[in-house]
C-alpha cells in the first residue's frame, strides 16, 4: 500500500534559504479538497531537525495569492539585488574567479577533514553556491 503522505500528494517543491529549508506540498484531502502544506525545517542547537508547518485550504488560495502579491509589490527588488551583490562581493571576493588546481586540492583536503561549507566559504572567499558547485565537480558530493 502506498504511503499516506505520498498518496494524496499532487505537487511538491522545496528551496533553501540560509540555514532553513522550505517545503511546499500541494495535497488532496480525503474529501477531495486541496490544501497547501508549507513546512520550514531547520537544525536546532542540539543538531536535531525542527519543523514548523502551516496548511492553507483551497477556499483561501486566492486570499493567499493576493496577500503575497501585495507584500511583494512593497519590495524594490532592484535595491535588494544591489545590496545582496555588494554583500556577496564583500564576503566572497573570489566569487566567479577561476579555481586553481592548488585551491581544488586544498578544498578537497579540507572537505574530507570535515570542514563545513561555511568554513570553506571563509577560507576560499567564495559563495555557498561556488563551494557546492566545485564540490560537485570534484565528485565529493552529489548534484
Keywords:
Nuclear Transport Factor 2, Chain: A, extended, 4 strands, 4-stranded antiparallel β-sheet, 143 residues, 26% strand
Describe the structure.
With 143 residues, this protein is of the alpha+beta class. The protein has two domains: 4-73, Nuclear Transport Factor 2, Chain: A (Roll); 77-137. The protein is 43% helix and 26% strand. The protein has six helices and four strands. The chain has a four-stranded antiparallel β-sheet. Helix 5 packs across helix 6 (128-137). The longest helix is centred in the middle third of the chain and has 15 residues, at 77-91. The chain is extended, with a radius of gyration of 20 Å.
Q: Remind me, CATH topology of the largest domain?
A: Nuclear Transport Factor 2, Chain: A
Q: Which structural category do the helix and sheet elements fall into?
A: alpha+beta
CATH architecture name of the largest domain:
Roll
Shape: extended
Q: Determine the N-to-C terminus distance.
A: 31 Å
- Give the beta-strand count: 4
Give the biggest sheet.
Answer: 4 strands, antiparallel
What is the helix/strand order? HEEEEHHHHH
Oligomer: single chain
Strand order of the largest sheet: 1-2-3-4
Average pLDDT across residues? 87
Fraction of residues in helix: 40-55%
SS strand fraction? 25-35%
List low-pLDDT spans: none
Q: How many domains make up the coordinates?
A: 2
Continuous helix count: 6
Question: What value does the Rg take, in angstroms?
Answer: 20 Å
Amino acid at each position: 500500500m502506498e504511503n499516506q503522505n505520498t498518496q494524496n500528494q499532487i505537487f511538491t517543491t522545496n528551496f533553501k534559504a540560509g540555514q532553513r529549508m522550505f517545503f511546499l506540498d500541494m495535497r488532496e484531502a480525503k474529501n477531495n479538497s486541496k490544501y497547501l502544506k508549507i513546512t520550514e525545517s531547520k537544525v536546532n542547537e542540539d543538531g536535531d531537525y525542527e519543523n514548523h508547518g502551516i496548511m492553507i485550504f483551497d477556499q483561501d488560495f486566492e486570499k493567499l495569492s493576493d496577500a503575497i502579491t501585495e507584500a511583494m509589490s512593497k519590495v524594490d527588488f532592484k535595491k535588494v539585488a544591489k545590496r545582496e551583490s555588494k554583500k556577496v562581493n564583500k564576503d566572497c571576493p573570489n566569487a566567479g574567479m577561476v579555481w586553481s588546481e592548488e585551491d581544488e586540492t586544498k578544498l578537497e583536503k579540507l572537505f574530507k577533514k570535515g570542514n563545513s561549507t561555511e568554513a570553506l566559504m571563509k577560507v576560499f572567499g567564495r559563495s555557498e553556491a561556488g563551494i557546492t558547485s566545485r564540490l560537485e565537480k570534484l565528485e565529493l558530493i552529489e548534484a
